[in-house]
């Protein structure tokens, strides 16, 4: 399999802005790290504050790496130039949709192109069905929807923007097991249909080992281990072993 994601010496430093003084570094962020990935579903794990969301934002281009640090290379074949191929779905997906927008308007915003008006309604209904939602939701506002429904709308929106890589940041944390199971099945189907890659940021090692083929472990802002899920039991890292032990 070909590497589709390559990180070369990426780092991120956060600064405290100070009036009349030079800026001051804040603890946290990410130390320079490099890895590459050929597996289609990747997990990013580590304790709270280890840098998972920072890494995800760098991959998504939401945060810029430090000046002079390396780069994120995505090898996803021919893609529309003007679009971001990476879309992030946050844990707080409820606030991800403008509360004044109907489902139809929220999804319409993700479609670009000349024939937007003509094609869009059909496109929106089709994608709603594909994420397991009914078109009856079209004129509903977010407050009338469940968390699970909003999450599916966020997924539909990412697909409509023609993103190829979907990053889920703790997006499964608030769902119960049955709903996690349903969501993972849906994601597997969508992945096949739209040739997607997934990055799952999570505390939940059980979900990660079930769903992901490769696991990236962060510790205090550095890369602790990159390991195939099938080899996790052979980890050489005591930190990773402790995370495994904590979840058994
Ligand atoms: N915008 C920011 N400004 C300053 N510091 C930040 C910022 N974002 C993250 N940090 C710091 O960088 C470190 C890593 O944060 P990050 O949010 O990436 O961790 P995380 O692994 O996603 O944690 P959690 O599991 O709690 O979501 C933390 O010490 C955090 O305080
Ligand atoms: Mg986080």
UniProtKB/TrEMBL annotation:
Gene3D superfamilies for this protein: P-loop containing nucleotide triphosphate hydrolases
Subcellular location: Cell membrane
ABC transporter domain location: 14-245
GO MF annotations in UniProt: ATP binding; ATP hydrolysis activity
Taxonomy, superkingdom: Bacteria
Keywords, sorted A to Z: ATP-binding, Nucleotide-binding, Peptide transport, Protein transport, Transport
CC terms in the record's Gene Ontology section: plasma membrane
Gene Ontology biological process terms in this record: peptide transport; protein transport; transmembrane transport
Claim: Transferase is one of the keywords in the record: no
Membrane protein topology class: Peripheral membrane protein
Record carries keyword Iron-sulfur: no
PROSITE patterns hit by this protein: ABC_TRANSPORTER_1 (PS00211), ABC_TRANSPORTER_2 (PS50893)
Family named by the database record: Belongs to the ABC transporter superfamily.
Protein name as catalogued: ABC transporter domain-containing protein
Source organism: Enterococcus ureasiticus
């Amino acid at each position: 399999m070909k590497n589709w994601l390559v990180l070369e010496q990426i780092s991120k430093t956060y600064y405290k802005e100070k009036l009349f003084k030079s800026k001051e570094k804040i603890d946290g962020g990410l130390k320079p790290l490099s890895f590459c990935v050929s597996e289609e579903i990747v997990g990013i794990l580590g304790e709270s504050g280890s840098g998972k969301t920072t890494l995800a934002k760098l991959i998504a281009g939401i945060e810029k790496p430090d000046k002079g640090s390396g780069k994120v290379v995505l090898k996803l074949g021919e893609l529309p130039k003007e679009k971001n191929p990476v879309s992030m779905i946050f844990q707080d997906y409820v606030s991800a949709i403008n509360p004044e927008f109907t489902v139809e308007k929220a999804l319409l915003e993700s479609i670009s192109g000349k024939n937007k008006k003509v094609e869009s309604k059909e496109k929106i209904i089709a994608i709603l069905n594909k994420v397991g939602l009914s078109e009856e939701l079209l004129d509903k506002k977010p407050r009338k929807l469940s968390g699970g429904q909003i999450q599916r709308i966020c997924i539909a929106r990412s697909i409509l923007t023609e993103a190829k890589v979907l990053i889920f940041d703790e997006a499964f944390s608030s769902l119960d097991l049955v709903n996690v199971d349903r969501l993972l099945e849906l994601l597997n189907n969508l992945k096949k249909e739209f040739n997607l890659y997934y990055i799952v940021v999570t505390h939940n090692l059980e979900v990660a080992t079930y769903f992901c083929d490769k696991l990236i472990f962060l510790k205090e802002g550095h890369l602790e281990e990159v390991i195939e899920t099938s080899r996790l039991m052979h980890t050489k890292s005591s930190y990773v072993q402790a995370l495994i032990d904590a979840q058994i």
